[in-house]
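Structure tokens please, single chain.
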Amino acid sequence: MMFRRGRGGRPYFFNQTGVPVWRIHILLVFFLLSGGLILLQLFRIQVLKHQAYLAQAQEQYQIFREVQPKRGEIYWQDLASRGIASLVINKPVYNFFVVPKLIKEPSQTAVLLVSIFPDKSADILAKINRRDDPYALVETSLENQAKEKISQILERAKWPADTYGFEEELKRYYLENGLGGHLTGFLGIAADGKTRSGQYGLEEYYDDLLRGQAGLIEADKDASGRPIAIGRRIVKPAQDGADIILTIDRNIQYKSCQALAERVAEFQATGGTVIVMNPADGSIYALCNYPTFDPNNYQAVAMGNFVDPSLANSYEPGSVFKPITMAAAIDQKAVTPRTSYLDTGAVVIDKYTIGNAHSKIYGQSTMSDVLDKSINTGAIFAFRAVGQENFRHYVNNFGFGKLTGIELAGESDGDVHTLDLNQEIYYATSSFGQGITVTPMQLITAYAAIARGGRLVKPTIIKSLKINGVLKNLPLQEIGQVISPETAETMSAMLTSVIENGFTKRAQVPGYKMAGKTGTAQIPNAGEKGYSEETIHTFVGFGPVGDGMPAFVILVKLDKPQTVPFADSSSAPLFAEIAKFILDYLQIPPQTSP
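Here you go.
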């Protein structure tokens, strides 16, 4: 080491090469700092940002794609063959796409594609001109026949196979488009505008179960960005949705819906509902509304038509509610079928006068007469005999004012809140079905309780679910004993008398004993007091009566019929028509000679 003096007498140190030592120190510090920064950057890239850069690298040669599961299918019964048949299936369709970045002659390609898809000419030209685009969707939901035709055209034109392709997807398809729109609902566009979700009916109620769970695949991709089949690896397998097997019988459904449509037209009604139930277990054999809609073309239907009137539209039922009042009074032993009272044609409560239909006066009448002749004052007599608290108790226990719990979206619970006001006038009008509202599903469920010995059961349209290949039958869900078996038997006999001796003889089926009751209810004025001249006609009945459990309960409802005044001329004959078909279909032998 050498030194020499500089200015001010301070020494400068030199190494053997004659370079000042301080310069070497500066270079050494510079290299140390640079090396440290490089090491720090390598640590940040290789350790701290490892996952981010790995994902970025993988994007260059790998694709992660969600694998959509197969949506569960829906089946219904064929009781004649003791088998099942498809109602809702997944039908394969194809999306046609091109690869603009690999197309060498875009103008000729555009001309050919426009000749195949003339209604998409502007869209095709725009997509073909995006020269860096590895994927351009041209058409969706092509049937297999259309797919094959397009393939043949492109093959004849000697199109390179790597410049186009078809992607298969499953499209929801409803086989009986005129029989089950409200029943099934449809698979529509979700709120996000991109994904699909079940809407209305079964599709909405069981959407999560039908949808299944998506899977994930990892696939290598080529320079064009398209997946390489041999490089695929399943990261997470998709779990297909559950299949649903309904209690609905397709033959009873067809007959019920056809007959309903014919009667709506004949009586110039605005619509109607038919429900057929097996009272033994609450299973629904048929559920029809008119007008209906085709779920395959739901886009062409006004949104208001999707609502199921049998569940969502509550209405004042009228005289068809009188058997509920009578069942309560008989069950409390407040009256018997032979209990009589003097009908003067009207009852005065506070400032209100309540009369019989058409101001009729029946004089001395029994409780059986009250149902046979549908006497309003007799229903009030029965209500007064049982008392307000007990009457409300029975109305609630029969399921009115509550959801039935049937497996369909959009159910309403009706409205019986006027009974909470504790005013006699509301109880009196409720006794014959005015001032309260019910749904058709609640009404048929209540009548089914009478038919099955007084035990209320939850209605169901589901026989079984098939989840991951395992079939699971749904158990009977009995709600409770609402009236005694003796009361149920008495009510069945009284309702049989209504058809045999009352105003409802058109509900008779030769050779069989049927039980039931009509209701011709005036429709309340919208937004004001009083009732309009328009009516709703209802009939609820069951049979055969007297040989064990009845085979069916049928509800028929016609909205605003124009050509007939009363339900005994409209809904009662429709009940008889459907009942006769079911008796023949189920091969139930006659009880008596026709």
